[in-house]
Amino acid sequence: MTLDLSHITLTYPDGSSRLTALDDVTVSVPAGTVTALVGPSGSGKSSLLAVAATLIIPDSGRVVVAGNDTTRLSREELTDLRRTSIGTIFQQPNLLPSLTAVEQLQVVAHLAGTPAASARARGLELLDAVGLADRADHRPHQLSGGQRQRVNIARALMNEPAVLLVDEPTSALDHERGAAVLGLLTALTRERRTATVLVTHDRSQLGGVDAVVEIHDGAVTARSELATTG
Ligand SMILES: Nc1ncnc2c1ncn2[C@@H]1O[C@H](COP(=O)(O)OP(=O)(O)OP(=O)(O)O)[C@@H](O)[C@H]1O
């Protein structure tokens, strides 16, 4: 398993008491597969993703990323793990307006200490993998919404993460572009062997995923394994 969340409980302050956002949630995601996390608004999906990203430390439970038990890591080691092993893709691409597509990717590699020439080569390779080889020198305002989300996906893969965390990546796209982005995410998950978690409201988007975990009021209420090719 490349991502193991076991017995995660998370509470938030709520006036004089606490609100239980996650209640003993266990999810394991093998390399090369996509697990969809579905559930109504407020059910705890984003909280679980933030726990998996090691951005929120749960009250109890264990988060193991690429074999690293994160509860045992120092703050510096966690930062390092996030940079090297976890890719995140959120609803809005959040690209830097003044940088070209390939430069968006190079920044990530630069922060991880990769030499500039190899970062550019890898950036171009990834833009090719997401179908944007001919848009490498375009800035965000020169790209469509779907193309911006593809740059975002390529950027998340720049440091070869073991874990890919994806939150509603198609919410800003029409159905056709959304389906294309999801198809791409599934294909890249298989090809690059990431353990991918996909948060979605939309059940029509579950076609290519390997497993579905349903969450209600912070607890897992159903799980199903679909065709696994990973
Ligand atoms: N920082 C916070 N402080 C207090 N309560 C929070 C905080 N973040 C989330 N919550 C609460 O925790 C519960 C789970 O929220 P979460 O954002 O994880 O749900 P979600 O399933 O991702 O919802 P949505 O689909 O609307 O994004 C909700 O009741 C929410 O109000």
From TrEMBL:
SMART domains registered for this protein in UniProt: AAA (SM00382)
Keywords: ATP-binding, Nucleotide-binding, Transport
Domain ABC transporter: 3-229
GO molecular function, one term: ATP binding
Protein transport in keyword set: no
Source species, domain of life: Bacteria
UniProt cross-references to CDD domains, sorted A to Z: ABC_MJ0796_LolCDE_FtsE
Pfam families named in the record: ABC_tran (PF00005)
Name used for this protein in its record: ABC transporter ATP-binding protein
Species name: Oceanitalea stevensii
